Every structure is written in structure tokens, then in C-alpha cells.
Amino acid sequence: MPVRAFIFDLDGVLTDTAEYHYRAWKRLADEEGWPFTRQDNEALRGIPRRESLLMILKGQTLPEERILELTERKNRYYLEYIREVSPGDLLPGAREFLQELRAAGLKTALGSASKNAPQVVQQLGIAELLDVITDGSSVARQKPAPDLFLYAAERLGVPPAECVVVEDAAAGIAAARAGGFRSIGLGPVERVGAADVVLPSLEGVRLEQLLPHLLALESR
Ligand code: BG6
Ligand code: MG
Known about the structure:
- Helix 9 links the parallel strand 5 (182-186) and strand 6 (197-199).
- This protein has ten helices and six strands.
- The protein is α/β, with parallel strands linked by helices.
- The chain has a six-stranded parallel sheet.
- The chain folds into two domains: 5-16 and 87-219, 3-Layer(aba) Sandwich (Rossmann fold), CATH 3.40.50; 18-82, Orthogonal Bundle (DNA polymerase, domain 1), CATH 1.10.150.
- Helix 1 crosses helix 4.
- The protein binds 6-O-phosphono-beta-D-glucopyranose and magnesium ion.
- Residues 10-11, 18, 21, 44-49, 52, 75, 112-116, 136, 169 line the site of 6-O-phosphono-beta-D-glucopyranose.
């Protein structure tokens, strides 16, 4: 199967907004007196806002109204933290890799579970490097369901087997596998070891070095 498109997660892949999500949850948790550590936050990568809160609550149930207030407060903090995000906040190698893909005639999409993704993309100045942008409002079932990536592939007009998903979250790699995509996991193997190819980051990544590995994979 040829490789014709790449679908990128945003938070933790193209920019380190994962850190701002952590700080916003931490501030909320501190205000509420809930225990919450950086390690707890690792399990929330790629997980939508509401589900993240439910995981932090560890089974404790709350009225819907309160859940809404808490998630809105977290998002207010998050928006405060990302106010200054600019092109300088792209992670090393991200812009170069996107540009290389486009120059090689491949298509590119964003597949982010964040409802704030379009704003972050604008602030990072990479909208013109993406053919399709999907976000937390695009589909009902979020990662680890494959729906968001399937929707991105459909809008790109490229079948999943010819797309590569780039993710930093275990839930995102699971979504890619479930949808029949090839996948690149960025980060430690304990987190993204289920990906077809595991890399520390996009820094120094070149398509010509990557392609033979991706093409050698059997289609899923
Ligand atoms: C994902 C992040 O990209 O988006 C998660 O990895 C986050 O941490 C999720 O919870 C939803 O984002 P938002 O901006 O809609 O709250
Ligand atoms: Mg991510």
C-alpha cells in the first residue's frame, strides 16, 4: 500500500499544549482538593475533556451541572494558558516535516480530540500546511474509537490503509490501529509501544528515511 497522507494529532505532537492541559487540570484539582499528579495526567493524553474529568474523579459521581461547571472552568484556565501560543511553540521538526510532506505531494490532516484545536492551529501559523482540520466537535465517538481519523481520511479522500497517523497518546494509537491506519508513536514505548514505528519526537525526522519502514508494514 502506498502512503498518500499523514494525519497528525495536535497536543503533544505538533506543539506541547499537553503541558497546558496538565496545568489547567492541576489548578482545578488543587482548588477542589483532589489528588492529581503529572503521572495521573499521562493517562489523560488524547482523552476528551469530559472523560478526562471522569477519570480524575476515579468513579466518584457528580450531578451533570457540576460536571459542566468543572469542565468549563478547566477550559477557561486552558484558554488562559494558551493565549500566548505562537509559531515559536511548534515542537522541533514539526514545521519542517509538514513542509516536506507537502513538497512531496502528500496530503496532511489534523486529527485532534481538542475543541480548541482550530484556534491553536491558527496561533501556531500552520493552517496553510494542513489540507483538512478535524477537532473535538467533528465526531461523537472520540479516541480510542477510530471515528475521528476515519473522518479525516474521508475528507482527505484517501483510504485509511494509505494514511499514517502520528500520535503521542496510547488512546490515539489504539484509534489508529482500530481504523486500519499505519501509525507513528511519539514518546516512550510504555506509552506508544503499540505503534508501528516509535520515535522520540519529530525532530530530524525525514520522509525518505521513514518511508521504507512504513511501506514494509503489512496493511492492517
Ligand atoms: C486532546 C488532549 O488533544 O484534547 C487532551 O490530548 C484533551 O488532553 C482533549 O483533554 C480535549 O481537549 P479540549 O481542548 O477540547 O478540552
Ligand atoms: Mg496528543
